Amino acid sequence: MTKLKKAIIAFCLICFALTFAGHFFEMPIISFLIVGLLALGAYKFNPPKFGVILFTVAFLLRILVVVFIEPPIISDYAVIYDTAREILNGNLNAASSQYMLTWGYQMGYTLFITMLLAIIDNVLFVKIINCLFTALIVLFIYLIVKELTNPKVARVLSVIYMVFPFPLLFNTILSNMHIASFMFLLAIYILISQKTKDMNRILKFILIGGCLAVGNIIRPEAIVFNFAILIYLFLTAKKGQFKNAIVSFLIMFITYSVFTYSASFVAMKSGVSPSGFENKAPLWKFAVGFNLETKGSYNDKLAKEFFEVDEQRQKEITYENVFGSLYQVPALFLHKAQNFWLGSDLHWVTDYMEDKNLNLSGIKIPLNIFTTIWDSLNKLIIYLIFILTFISIVVKRHKIDNRQLLILLVLLTYFGVYLLIECTPKYAYTAHIFLFLMSSYALEYILPKLQALKNTKLKPKYAKDDIADFQDK
Length: 473
Prior knowledge:
With 473 residues, the chain is mainly α. Helices cover 72% and strands 2% of the residues.
């Protein structure tokens, strides 16, 4: 078991090193100042009820973003929103569009939007609800890191995540990643938190399975967490406890399956979603994931070819992409890893700002100034957290604890999954959260050393006794 843990750690280090190869820092100095000042402020600022203050500020900041930044609803998000509006108006046939029949799993979030619009018929209300969940992500990063390391590290990382441009600005997009990411994070919190340590085991794993199910209904990524938790339970089970580990996983997985398939069945039988929440084109993600022309990213030309042929031809296209040029796969995987983990993808929010100005008392300020700062700050934080995560693995490689092992397994599973399927930087939304959690170990190691160095420099060159001796001489 120890050898397997060491193998996992070694493999993670290799993956991180290869992924970071070839990337350089190209950020204005202002990005360093922003991150540095925020980190210093969070390190020094320690008021009572910090978690409440953190959540409140994170929520208000996100509301400001969605109120003042209004990118157009485009692409898949437009289809989902339009379908939700049609269903709200009583047109159930909207769910029978070719898009929804093919990608039935999009109906979970679509129906959630429909319910929100039924309460307040305004897209801003949907975005504010998303802001609520993303502010909770900030809070739970603080709560989890505080348990993993210490409150100072938790304050620093949660504040940096609070202003991390990608998830902050992405609140303006009607993405299913906001709520799903929180539910997955909540499941991990229930599993590893000291506050749930004495919880009834059956109840605990029912709750974990329920959280994973809700997250999966909104966005089907729970396979990552089911697999990571399975391996985690197996590796951390002590001698004679494998039966308990298997039972715990089965309780979780059965709960997850019952919730997921029941929701899909009800949606299908009610006529709201003819495909339920099923993916009718599972091969597509692999076909585009191995496509060399766009290096694993969406390919419009391939999409037109793939969806205009029968199922047998789709299998052939997938086979051709996966096995057609095996000698190029290592380079493809390296590009996908770098693109997924280190890519800065803000164009969904910032594209509409091109060539626009902010008018302040007759003074026109190009919005490109803001988008440049956001992009550079986004890159800096991604690189910083990636490096800190690498350091964390190195520092803890000989004494990895169970909770760190689980976070590593989640990251490693994300790494493996997105090597195989369609991959763009925005899909790293949930994975970034776990990079922040993992990076806490590096900060726990580095911050005391920086403080000790500072104290050493502040000490007088001679102690009082030394000065007295010198004067006597």
